[in-house]
Write a structure and sequence with these properties.
307 residues; alpha+beta; 48% helix; globular
């Protein structure tokens, strides 16, 4: 018996959420929110449709709604993230639906002033959010508006032309449906033609759309999800490699071995064996997840350490 891994990030009524995460790997994903993340420790690689970006301590990355991204790191990375739904601004700034950030990352050494100012706002925002003082919701709203105003005033954004808005929305909704379908079926036999049929799209067109949107081909995307699920089964169960291969959607164990080796630098057998003989702290770090969301109390302690 094992426990499946789920990422549960729920918004409160104010359409924003702040969290501190200890991360080694995050499979390709997207969300309906703007995401602004500060690297507190470590050196993760951010993978988007535009390519790979290596980040360092105090660097920032910004993701627009419905933009697929993946995060990987060789050692544990601590990230402070703010997710804000466009609905947060809708009552007084509906233009937010027409705006998108241009650059996915700001580097502390190059963009010193921007990173320093955003760093300060994010820490104040996180402290207010986690401490839950009487007027915290008002303070959080103030700081979020201050943060976005500052980002938009830097000029690193563009306006989506009115003529492209309908196509932009259609694309976002299609990406959402595709990801949801893959998440629901990646443990089964899954073909791009299945999605093409569901979306009523030409297979050739969908193949190019997928590569352009997600920065990787369909099969590589699915295999990453399958390998991460297999990694958890290797550590949490005593299932045979054949059973794990089949449960994760790999019908060919040899192909499973090759894909796992590519993703984690070891075959499934080697990975399980090295874990079994690893130091207890390493086992605890890898046991359930390649990412751990810190509690509010733990987040406050860590924020003081990195302030």
């Amino acid at each position: 018996m094992h426990r499946d891994e789920y990422e549960i990030i729920s918004h409160n009524n104010s359409n924003f959420h702040i969290f501190l995460v200890d991360l080694l790997y995050r499979t390709p994903h997207m969300h309906k929110d703007f995401e602004i993340s500060l690297i507190l420790d470590g050196s993760p690689t951010l993978l988007t449709a535009s390519g790979e970006i290596v980040l360092k301590k105090n660097d920032l990355f910004i993701m627009n709604p419905y933009h697929s991204h993946e995060i990987k790191a060789k050692s544990t990375t601590l990230i402070l993230s703010l997710q804000v739904s466009p609905a947060f601004f809708a009552p007084y700034f509906p233009q937010i639906d027409d705006l998108a950030f241009d650059v996915p990352a700001f580097f502390a050494r190059q963009d010193t002033i921007i990173c320093s100012q955003i760093h300060t706002i994010l820490f104040e925002l996180a402290s207010a959010y986690f401490q839950k003082e009487d007027f915290a919701p008002i303070r959080c709203a103030l700081l979020i508006n201050q943060l976005f105003l500052h980002l938009f005033q830097t000029g690193h954004h563009h306006l989506i032309p009115p003529a492209e808005k309908a196509a932009h929305l259609t694309k976002n909704m299609r990406m959402k449906r595709i990801m949801q379908y893959i998440d629901a079926h990646y443990k089964e036999k899954l073909l791009l033609s299945d999605i093409a049929r569901q979306e009523q799209l030409d297979l050739f067109y969908l193949s190019h759309f997928f590569k352009e949107t997600f920065g990787t081909c369909f099969q590589d995307y699915v295999n990453k999800l399958r390998c991460e699920h297999a990694r958890q089964l290797l550590l949490l169960t005593d299932y045979s490699l054949l059973d794990i291969s089949l449960q994760c959607g790999f019908s060919d164990p040899k192909y499973f071995n090759r894909r796992f080796l590519t993703q984690y630098g070891a075959t499934p057998k080697e990975y399980r064996r090295s874990f079994q003989h690893a130091h207890l702290s390493i086992q605890q770090q890898s046991m359930l997840s390649t990412q751990e969301f810190l509690s509010e109390q733990a987040s406050l302690v860590m924020l003081e350490r990195y302030r």
